[in-house]
């Protein structure tokens, strides 16, 4: 530093034992910080054309030093503030792994928008992480009716690491947003995994939260998703929002039918299906009280229409035939009235139990279920979904009679929906409310032998859910039953690590519960036998 005023001051550094290199380095760092501040200031001041001209000139002068670690942050900062970095420079950055890693997300966006494969490589690990996180929640060791998969609010879920990272990677870039949506559609088609539908809705609403109008205004699903998001938050579709949602569906114009593919994917999100199914069950109960048939309720018909659209998402995207699936009339005229008759059966039985004994009629709880009900669960996807949610509803009400009556119908359902992870996750949570029933042989035989164990050997996910349930409720099960279940649930060589780990945990818990051998063997009597005393002879 050839400053005349500095020369006389430098000996002070020698007195303090400070090397010149350290001094020069600190001055250099300070200057670099000032330069970074100045670059950021240039990007905000003056006319747009002028400011970008200055930054482009600066980039031209400094780019040759981009591989010098001390200067690199300045070059990267200049590129970050340029809305369009010269293509030649972008190619040089892309070709060098270290430079690519060091550049800001604003520069990477410019690279990604013309390199779908590279963007896919960046996004793919995040999508895998997202699916893994969802599956970990479904198989969580915490089983509770209060805290389950559907407990977190939509806004809380959107704060998740993956959604936030994707939101940052996309920024305001419509092209990148479209690419992510295309990845999600492709993966959904390839795997049928409905969690990709959740991510599609969460990503749009995350951009909505940040007021990114550049994307929200061009996504035709935005307002529909926003309205549905409010329903999911309340876990209920009220009349006002039902009319809004219906307006969006009815408003799909001729020639724009492709939007139905995206709307069906939004409705296929498990959080949307959960909200629609819960609202349907609530409506059916209200209709029982009003003596009204399902076909006379427009709100109920709309819920069924949206459920149908959501459940048909995969077929619609796969076939590329964008029209709403036709709803079977029998679903409305036969299946739903049948469900309502189950509600009436419960009401009648409850009232009968409360009557004084002399007024009681000989009404046993109906044990059989109509054959038509079982057939609907096997052949109609919407009927099956509603039937399963009704089953969860009666379990949550601790209605053991209705539970045992309907359980046999669940062994064979449409696409084995009764053995899906989401249903079993909710069922195991609700079963904690029936904990005391696990001591009864009849209940355990129906639940385990009649339902779970029928598929355990061929469905590993069911095996895991049963072990989760027993880890939580093993102390409630009768010892003899527990022993037979332990044998039946023993993992095979083909079983995955997760099953083996859960089984080992259960075995350890059961070993701890066994009484120790000292307690089992009879303790020897402490009393000594009295010696026989001869009776004195009388004189």
UniProtKB/TrEMBL annotation:
Keywords recorded for this protein, A-Z: Elongation factor, Protein biosynthesis
Any one GO MF annotation of this record: translation elongation factor activity
UniProt-listed InterPro entries: COBRA1
GO biological processes: negative regulation of transcription elongation by RNA polymerase II
GO cellular component: NELF complex
Keyword Flavoprotein in annotation: no
Chain segments carrying region Disordered: 513-539
Full protein name: Negative elongation factor B
């Amino acid at each position: 530093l050839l400053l005349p005023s500095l020369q006389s001051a430098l000996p002070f550094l020698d007195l303090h034992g400070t090397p010149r290199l350290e001094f020069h380095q600190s001055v250099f760092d300070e200057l670099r910080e000032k330069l970074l501040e100045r670059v950021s200031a240039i990007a905000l001041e003056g006319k747009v054309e002028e400011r970008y001209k200055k930054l482009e000139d600066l980039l031209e002068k400094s780019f040759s030093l981009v591989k010098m670690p001390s200067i690199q942050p300045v070059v990267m900062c200049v590129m970050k503030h340029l809305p369009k970095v010269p293509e030649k420079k972008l190619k040089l950055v892309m070709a060098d792994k270290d430079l690519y890693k060091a550049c800001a997300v604003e520069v990477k966006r410019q690279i990604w928008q013309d390199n779908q494969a590279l963007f896919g490589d960046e996004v793919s690990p995040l999508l895998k992480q997202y699916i893994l996180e969802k599956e970990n929640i479904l198989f969580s060791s915490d089983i509770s009716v209060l805290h389950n998969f559907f407990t977190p609010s939509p806004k809380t879920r959107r704060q998740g690491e993956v959604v936030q990272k994707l939101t940052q990677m996309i920024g305001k870039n419509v092209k990148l947003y479209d690419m992510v949506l295309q990845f999600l559609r492709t993966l959904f088609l390839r795997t049928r995994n409905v969690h990709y539908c959740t991510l599609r809705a969460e990503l749009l609403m995350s951009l909505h939260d940040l007021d990114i109008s550049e994307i929200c205004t061009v996504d035709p699903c935005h307002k529909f998703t926003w309205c549905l998001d409010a329903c999911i938050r309340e876990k209920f579709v009220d009349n006002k929002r039902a009319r809004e949602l219906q307006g969006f569906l009815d408003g799909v114009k001729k020639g724009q039918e492709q939007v139905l593919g995206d709307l069906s994917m939004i409705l296929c999100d498990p959080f949307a299906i959960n909200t629609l199914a819960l609202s349907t069950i609530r409506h059916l109960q209200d209709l029982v009280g009003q003596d009204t048939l399902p076909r006379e309720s427009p709100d109920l018909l709309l819920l069924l229409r949206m459920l149908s659209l959501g459940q048909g998402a995969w077929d619609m995207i796969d076939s590329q035939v964008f029209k709403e699936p036709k709803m079977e009339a029998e679903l409305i005229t036969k299946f739903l009235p049948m469900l309502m008759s189950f509600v009436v059966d419960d009401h009648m039985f409850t009232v009968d139990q409360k009557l004084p004994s002399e007024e009681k009629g000989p009404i046993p709880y109906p044990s059989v279920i109509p054959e038509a009900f079982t057939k609907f669960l096997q052949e109609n996807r919407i009927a099956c979904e509603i039937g399963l949610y009704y089953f969860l509803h009666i379990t949550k009400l601790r209605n053991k009679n209705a539970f045992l009556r309907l359980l046999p119908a669940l062994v064979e359902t449409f696409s084995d929906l009764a053995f899906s992870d989401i249903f079993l996750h909710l069922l195991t949570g609700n079963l904690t409310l029936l904990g005391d029933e696990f001591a009864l042989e009849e209940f355990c035989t129906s639940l385990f032998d009649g339902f779970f164990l029928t598929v355990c050997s061929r469905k590993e996910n069911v095996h895991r859910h049963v072990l989760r349930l027993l880890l939580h409720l093993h102390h409630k099960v009768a010892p003899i039953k527990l022993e037979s279940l332990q044998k039946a649930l023993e993992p095979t060589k083909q079983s995955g690590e997760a099953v083996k780990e859960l089984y080992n945990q259960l075995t350890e818990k059961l070993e701890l519960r066994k009484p120790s051998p000292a307690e089992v063997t009879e303790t020897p009597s402490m009393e000594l036998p009295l010696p026989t005393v001869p009776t004195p002879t009388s004189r």
